[in-house]
Write a structure and sequence with these properties.
Blueprint: H1 12-33, H2 47-95, H3 109-125, E1 128-129, E2 132-133, H4 148-153, H5 161-173, E3 181-184, E4 190-195, E5 205-211, E6 217-222, E7 227-231, E8 242-248, E9 254-262, E10 271-273, H6 282-318, E11 322-326, E12 363-366, E13 369-374, E14 382-384, H7 389-400, E15 407-409, E16 412-417, E17 425-427, H8 430-435, E18 450-452, E19 463-465, E20 488-492, E21 495-498, H9 506-520, H10 530-544, H11 554-590, H12 594-619, H13 623-626
Helix pairs in contact: 1-12, 2-3, 2-9, 2-10, 2-11, 3-9, 5-6, 6-9, 6-10, 9-10
């Protein structure tokens, strides 16, 4: 019989000692690293929660980076918007100043300030965050606004605003300086004033005439082109009798000329002399009225009209809301009145209606939405055949969503749209659509900038698309949709914020436009009407820079992006709380308690010491001792 040697390494006791040593090594690693294991397999059953928690922490870190970057953009945008507010207040204060002293360039100090502030505003609108232009919408790699000098003075191939303004002024004043009005005396006892061309967008438009002139007959305003006449009928008016004429100016404002019959010598300002010869000759009074009316119209044309023309030129150049313009045809018996918002879409002569008109069953399709004409009881997308032009325009505006309502004045319809590319109007009754002044179908928008349509400008009768030869001031994204939606960021699993901005937003555009008009306009330093021009323009600029109910304000844009910032702040607060909770879950799953590890190490050390003692005793055992 043979007795095998005792092999320590293969014994159960040796295996146990090696196991204890390995446990001591693992516990020492846990004690030094604070982790249960250096690999997932050693982490235990809760490691799945830790892995999911770590993924969520990674998402939160990404959201934190996004929030940080978006906050930088928003803070820069808000600083820029605040600068725009400061610029607005500076220019408005200057324009409201009654001092109208002109320098050698035909401008006031306030206008010089406005010109400088225009350059500052352009610089602000071209603010960048990294390589991103903050006011270009989705076209963030493109400079938001053209250089200030190019906008005002143009380039070698494209006209700037100064040229557009000069052309418009010439077209509105006309060659005679009468605001495109023609004044005559059909008979020795009468005076007549008429617009030069029906439907022209330029010059003064006769709105209303009233009279208390004793024995006089007033006719109109009526006809095409619109005119009115005053016939004294061989009778002198009484002292204090008055003739009043209201005119609509190109910017939509209304001004009135009042002329009072007077026996005073010299004749007071705003009056006309009653003939006092012997025998009395009322025809001389008519001649005096004609002269006084001519003087008053020229003054109005060369002061308020010039200012209104400058403001309207600003709209033609800067306003990105496009329009389609038509001149309706009347169905009235002579003498017809001007076509207006109350003019019906159908009716038998001599009613105030277009001709030919719409009938039941006709349709007008606007950007894919159909309006149907019915005999009566219209609802929804329906129109009664007897409804007014204004009702039709309101229906069209509701479909296009224009920010600037369509209008009819001066015998012309203007259909406005914020998206020139999409405007498309057709009708099953092309004749009736033609009666509204739109002979070509589909009706599309004339895209800005708008320029005087022919040369010489003083006799032009149309506005045309000037985009081919005119500076485009705004160079960023100008598509449909909210400006805020042009920059979006996800800041939480289910939260996105919108913080985009565009330099052509209504509040910004109106401010830039008003400042450009004020800072660019100049006149003769010694001209007869120069002071009146600047005074009238200053009033309009002050009003343009005064926030009106219903208009977008710079502060509204700031509020929008502040809401985005608040949303991110709330998300960040939630994420901070979630990070703490997730870290607790991970720590509980992966971290080793120092106290517990130390206790286990002590226990294993005692066990190992006992094992070594037993092993030592066994190692000294021999057969002799065994026997």
């Amino acid at each position: 019989m043979s007795i095998s040697s005792i092999n320590y390494s293969s014994s159960v006791l040796g295996s146990q000692i090696r196991n204890i040593n390995q446990q001591l090594t693992d516990l020492s690693t846990q004690l030094s690293t604070g982790k249960l294991s250096q690999n997932y397999s050693g982490m235990g059953t809760n490691e799945g929660f830790a892995i999911a928690g770590r993924a969520q922490l990674s998402n939160i870190a990404a959201y934190t980076d996004t929030i940080t970057n978006v906050n930088v953009n928003i803070n820069l945008a808000n600083t820029a918007l605040q600068a725009l507010t400061t610029i607005r207040n500076t220019v408005q204060t200057g324009s409201a100043n009654t001092a109208q002293d002109l320098n050698v360039n035909g401008q006031t100090v306030a206008q010089n300030t406005a010109a400088a502030q225009f350059g500052s505003m352009v610089g602000v609108l071209n603010t960048q965050s990294g390589n991103r232009y903050l006011f270009s919408g989705t076209a963030f790699n493109t400079q938001s606004v053209a250089d200030a000098g190019d906008i005002i003075n143009g380039t070698t191939t494209q006209a700037g605003f100064k040229t557009v303004m000069a052309e418009r002024q010439a077209a509105d004043l006309g060659a005679s300086g009468m605001g495109r009005l023609v004044q005559t005396q059909p008979t020795p006892s009468s005076v007549q004033v008429s617009e030069d061309v029906a439907g022209s967008p330029f010059g003064l438009k006769i709105k209303a005439v009233s009279s208390t002139l004793t024995g006089a007959t007033v006719t109109g305003p009526s006809g095409s082109p619109v005119s009115f006449s005053v016939d004294l009928n061989g009778t002198n008016p009484s002292n204090g009798d008055k003739l009043s004429v209201q005119f609509t100016l190109p910017d939509g404002t209304t001004e009135q000329i009042d002329l009072t019959a007077s026996t005073a010598t010299p004749t007071p300002l705003g009056s006309f002399a009653i003939d006092a010869s012997v025998p009395v000759n009322p025809n001389n009074t008519a001649a005096n009225l004609n002269t006084a009316l001519n003087t008053a119209i020229k003054k109005l044309a060369n002061t308020s009209l010039v200012a209104a023309s400058a403001v309207t030129a600003g709209d033609n150049f800067f306003n990105t809301a496009s329009s389609a313009i038509g001149t309706p045809k009347s169905n009235q018996a002579a003498p017809p009145a001007p076509i207006g918002g109350a003019t019906a879409l159908s009716g038998a002569s001599p009613s105030d209606s277009i001709s030919p008109g719409f009938v039941a069953g006709d349709t007008i399709t606007v950007n894919g939405t159909t309006l149907t004409f019915v005999a009566s009881g219209a609802t929804g997308n329906q129109l009664n055949v007897g409804d007014s032009i204004q009702t039709l325009l309101s229906k069209i505006d509701a479909i296009t969503g224009t920010s600037k309502p369509s209008t009819i004045h001066g015998g012309s319809i203007t259909i406005n749209t914020d998206d020139a590319a999409s405007l498309n109007i057709t009708s099953s009754n092309t004749g009736a659509l033609g009666s509204l002044g739109f002979s070509a179908t589909p009706v599309t928008a004339t895209q800005p900038p708008l320029r005087v349509g022919s040369s010489p400008a003083s006799s032009a009768t149309t506005l045309v698309n000037g985009s081919a030869n005119t500076v485009k001031w705004y160079q960023g994204n100008d598509g449909p949709g909210s400006a805020r939606s042009t920059a979006m960021a996800r800041v939480d699993d289910s939260v996105t914020v919108q913080y985009g901005a565009q330099a052509d937003e209504d509040a910004i555009r109106r401010q830039l436009q008003a400042i450009a008009v004020f800072g660019t306009f100049s006149t003769s330093p010694t001209g007869q009407y120069s002071g009146g021009q600047v005074s009238a323009l200053s009033l309009r600029v002050t009003q343009a820079l005064t926030q009106q109910p219903g208009q977008q304000r710079i502060e509204d844009i700031q509020t929008d992006i502040a809401m985005a910032q608040n949303t991110m702040k709330d998300a960040s607060t939630r994420q901070t709380q979630a990070k703490a909770q997730l870290q607790t879950i991970i720590d509980q799953a992966e971290s080793a308690s120092p106290d517990q590890v130390a206790s286990e190490i002590l226990s294993l050390q005692n066990a190992l010491q006992a094992s070594y003692q037993v092993t030592s005793n066994l190692a000294q055992l021999s057969l002799v001792k065994f026997l």
